[in-house]
Amino acid sequence: MYFQLTEEQSLVRETVRSFAEKELAPSAAERDELERFDRDLMFDKLAELGLAGIVFPEEYGGAGADYISYAIAVEELSRVCASTGVTLSAHLSLGANPVWLFGSEEQKKTFLVPMAEGTKLGAFGLTEPTAGSDAGGTKTFAVRDGDEWVLNGSKIFITNGGDAEIYIVFARTDKDAQKHHGISAFIVEKGTPGFNFGKKEQKMGIRSSPTCELVFENCRIPAGNLLGKEGEGFKIAMKTLDGGRIGIAAQALGIAQGAYEQSLSYALDRKQFNQPIAGFQAVQFILADMALRIEASRLLVYQSAWRASAGLAYGKESAMAKLSASETAMWVTTKAVQVHGGYGYTREFPVERMMRDAKITEIYEGTSEVQRVVIGAAVARG
Amino acid sequence: MFLDLSEEQSLIRETAREFAVAELEPVAAAVDRGEQQETFFENLRKLADLGFMGLNVKDEFGGAEAGVVAFSVAITELSRACASTAVTVSVNNMVCEVIQAVGSEEQKRNYIPKICSGEYLAGAFALTESGAGSDPAAMSTSAVADGDSYVLNGSKVFITSAPYAGVFVVWAVTDSSAPKGKGISCFLVESGTLGCRVGRAEEKMGQHASATTEVLFEDCRVPASAMLGCPNEGYRVAVGELAGGRIGIGSLALGIGQAAIEAAARYSLERKQFGQQISDFQAIQWKIADAATDLEAARLLLMNAAYRKEQGRSFAKEASMAKLFATEAANRGCYEAMQIFGGYGYTSEFPVERYCRDVRITTIYEGTSEIQRMIIAREVLRNLA
User: Fold this and answer.
1) A289: chain B residues, CB-CB within 8 Å
2) Residue B249 and residue B323 in contact, taking contact as beta carbons nearer than 8 Å
C-alpha cells in the first residue's frame, strides 16, 4: 500500500490547478451564461499543457503519463469549470482512447496522433433518441458499398459535437443480428459529405460544453475507417465507456471539491447570530460530511485509475467510482447551495452553476442506475 | 500510488481469514448466546500465538511488527466471522500500542509481552465514565498522590474485556485545579490490585461474547511507577490512542458489513420468488451494488488512514473519516442484507441477525459518529482559518 502521489502526478495537479484558476475560472460564469465554447481556452491551451493525449505514449503524440495523472487533470479543470473538464474527458476517453485500444497502426497515425497532440478534437457518437441506456437498440446503420461504408441515421447528445474533427460512430452493420450483435464502430471526420450537425441542445448545466446532434444521410466513408472488426462495435463501446467513467468520475469529483471549498470559505466568512456560521455544529457537520464523501470518492476514482494503468480489470471499480463521485457531486453541490443560503441560489456565487453542472454526472456515460446494474452483476458473479 | 497489499500484509490477511473460517465462525453463534466461553478464551490464546495481539508492536516486546495496514486487514478478517473476538483483539492491540508509545522501559517490558503472548487474555481501556462519554475530560475518577503511591477513587463504565483483562489503562484526575483536560493522568492498574474490582456487566444488544462491565476503584493504591506517561498529560494520550483505535473499529465494522452483504448476495442467488432468483430483481441488485460500493470506499479510507499512521504522518482526520464512513456504511449494509433475507434474516437461523446487532455499536463506541464529524470539521476548518 502506498497512497502518496508521485512527483509527476503532483506536478500535474499543480500545473493544471494554476492554469484552471488563472485562465478558466475568470470566464467560467460568463461562458456558462452565454453557452459559449471557447476552443482556444478549453482545448488548445490544454493541448499546450500536454493534456490532450496525456495517457498515450509519446510516439503517438501523448505525454506518456498514467491514468491517475489524467484523473487529476480532469478533476482540477472541473473544480473551476466542469464544461472544460468534460471537453477533455470526452475528447480523450471517448474520442481518442477507442482508436488507441482498437485502431490499426495506420488509424493510430492518422487519427490518434492529431487527437493526442491536440490539433484535432475528438467525440463519440453512440446515443440515439431511442437508444440511451440500452445501447443495443442502435438504429443508425452502415451498408458496405465497394470500398466504402454508407451511413444513415442520427446520434444525439454528442459532447464536443459540431466542434470536434473526429467522431467515433456506432452503426448497425448486420440488420439480422440480435440487439448488441451486429454493431460496428467507425471513424468519421467532420466535413465528410452527408455528415451534418443537427440541433444544439440547450442544457441545465455544462452549458459551455457543446452538445449536438449528428446527422448521417448517405454519408460515405472509406472502408479503412472501420474501427476494430465488423460486429465488434458493442464491445468497443463498452470498453471505451469503462475508461470514460474514470473521466466523468474525476469531473464529478472536481465539481464536488470546488463546491466544498466555496462552502468552507463562505462558512468562515458569513456571520449570523454574531458568529461565523462555521461555528454552528449544523454547518460543521455538513462540511465534515462533504469532506468525507469527497475523500471516499477520490480514493475510488484514483483506485480505478491506478488499476487501469496497472493493467488490472477495472470495470467494476470504475463503475463504483463513477456512481460514488457523481452522487457525491450532486449531494455536495446541493448542500453547498444550502450553506450559502439565498445567495447560493443566485449567480453571484459559483455554487449555483456547480449544482446545475453536477446533475449531468449522474446521467451521462451510464446513469447511476446502469452503474448499479454493472456493480450488482459483478458482485453477484463474485 | 500503489494500492495492493504487500506480500507480508497478504499473508497476514490469509492467516486471519483461515483462522476466522476454521475457528471463529463455527462458534460465533454459540458465543453470542453466552455459551462456550472457554472456546472464546482459547481462540484469544491461539490468536496471541499467531501474533495478532501486537500487530503494530515491536518485536522486542513480543509484537509482530507488521504495521497498521496489516492490523486493519487482520481485524476485518476476524470480524467477518466474530465481531466479539475482533473487538477484543483490536483493544488488546491498542493497549499494547499505548504502552509502547508512552510507557517507561520497565512498563513496556513488563506488560506488552504478557498481552502479546496471551499470558494476559486481554488488556482494557478504562476511560469512559457514566458522566464522561463523548466528553472524557469531564471525568471525575481521581488519583491522589500519597507518598510513593497514588490512591484511585471512582468508577468507569462500558469497559471492554474487564473481567479477563490482566491490566487496565486507567485515566484519572490528578490535578483538580487545572483547566479541563489539563489535569488528567494515566495509570496502569493490574487486575487483582486491592480496591480495584469489576462491577456490573452490561446486557447488550450485540457483541455478547465480549464482556462490557463497570470497573470500580475504592481507595485503590498503586505505586507512583504505575503512572503511564507524564503527569497531567493523560488526556492527550487518550485522544492520540483513540485515533489509532478508530482504525481498528472501522476495520471491524467493514468486516461485519462485508460478511453481511456477501451472505445476502449468496442468498439472493438461491432464493426464488415470482418464479425467479431474487438476484434477478433490480431492487435486490441495487442494494448489493450500493453496499459493495460503500464498503469499497470504506476499505480505501481505512487503508489510507492506516498507511498514514504507518508512515508517521498525521492521521487523526483520516482515521475519523474512515471510522465514520466504515461504521455507517456497515450499518446500512447489514440492514439491507437483513432486508434481502426477508423474514429469515430476522431469525437466528442466519447470521445476518447477529451481524445487525453486532454492527450497531460501531457508530457509537470509540467516538460516536457525531464526535467523528466534530473532529473532521475542526480539522478542515483549522487548515483554512
Assistant:
1) 373
2) yes
Number of H helices, E strands in chain B: 11, 10
Contact A300 B296 (CB under 8 A): yes
**Longest C-alpha distance within chain B, in Å?**
79
Q: How high is the pLDDT of residue A318?
A: 97
B3-37 as b/e: b if 16+ CB within 10 A: bebeeebeebbeebbebbeebbeebbbebbeeebe
Alpha-carbon distance of A197 to A160, in angstroms, equals 11
Express each pLDDT in B19-63 by its tens digit.
999 999 999 999 999 999 999 999 999 999 999 999 999 999 999
Length of chain B counted residue by residue: 385
CB contact under 8 A, A288 and B377: yes
Query: What structural domains and CATH numbers belong to chain B?
Result: 7-121 (1.10.540.10), 125-232 (2.40.110.10), 235-384 (1.20.140.10)
B220 beta partners: B152
Of A326, A251, A320, A296, nearest to A70 by C-alpha is A251
What residues of A are in contact with residue B380 (Cβ under 8 Å)?
264, 287-288, 291
Sorting pLDDT into bands at 50, 70 and 90, what band is B352? very high
Contact of A240 with A318, CB cutoff 8 Å: no
CB atoms within 10 A of CB A382: 8
